[in-house]
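Purpose: get a first structural picture of the assembly so the mutagenesis plan has something to point at.
Setup: two entries, given in the order below. No constraints added.
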Amino acid sequence: MELDRTSLDKLYRYAYTLTANQADAYDLLHNAIETSLNRPSETTEKNIAYLRAIMRNRFIDEYRHNQSFPHEDLDDHSPVSLSESSLEDVVIASHDLAVLWKTIEPVDREVLFFWAVEGFSIREISEKLEISRGTLLSRIHRLRKRLSENVNDRQRGQA
Amino acid sequence: MKKPLKRPLKQQLQNHLNQLHLDNNQFAELEKLVANGNQKNNKVHSRAWVPMAAAGMFLFAVFTAFMALQFSKDNFQTMPQQIAEEVVSNHLKLKPLEVKTGSINAVRGYFTKLDFMPVESSLQALNNLQLIGGRYCSLQGITAAQLRMKQGENLQTLYETEYVPDVFGDIPILEKGEEPQVVYAKGIKVKVWVEKGLLFALTDSPDVTGSKEMNE
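Result (structure tokens, whole complex):
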């Protein structure tokens, strides 16, 4: 199995997206590599995809011990106003993002990671996370709403 | 107080996540983990071919032995000999006739599913034989008419089938003035020849009586 530093960093970021904690992210990645060594894939891309799947499954398993991993089915009949660009016009300060990052659900962090870092489209994200497009759009809509509310609350608090 | 600079969410997320890197110790540890795993896998893989190779060699040996047996059998037995073996084997079984008749026309009327028409041979040896019936059969996998003939108390078997040179090889052709090939199988004499585009095989067995036939 070949994994260069860039690939490992990418995997580490994904692990951090799930855990929102750097130490946990490293443990999760370490654990996943140990598991994947028994079944190495032919290409780096396949190895990365496989490692991501291992990390996600392991994280969900562990997360469910403490609290249920949010996987509820949302309304598939999304409002018309929802679109792929729902998050495009959201602006936020870096400090606010760092604080909010730890409070939002892991599945929402995954959506943001694939959207912002990997540059996936809504369709690709819904395929990746195995949730319907309508559900994903509803989730993004709620996420956007929550981001705005939290930022406003923080601003009011600071004032 | 200076207001914090707001940027698009996507850009902030990229900044937030892309600033994360494994530190050198973490990277070295993971690199070592991967290297050790690769080494272990290579060892397993390098040993994995041994049982596979052994199994492959065993199968190859079995296949070679089987082919050698087939090859030697085919080579030691000529095609006329193989025909004789098959004809005699069925001759001795004396399976029940499907059509009982002394008429070649009646026989032709019965064998409607053949790709050829049963005919009378001009071979002199058949002059003293009386047709008593027939049944569908096959010779070397090709559909044939198995005719039963009577010579006094003796029963003989005459096979007729389409002559396919690719299957039967060179067989004496009566029209060319060639004599039928005589081969023995299980102690019984068999004449094999080609006539009128058909392959014939006739037993010449003085020891087979009609007792079995009469009992059926």
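The first helix of chain B runs from residue 9 to 18.
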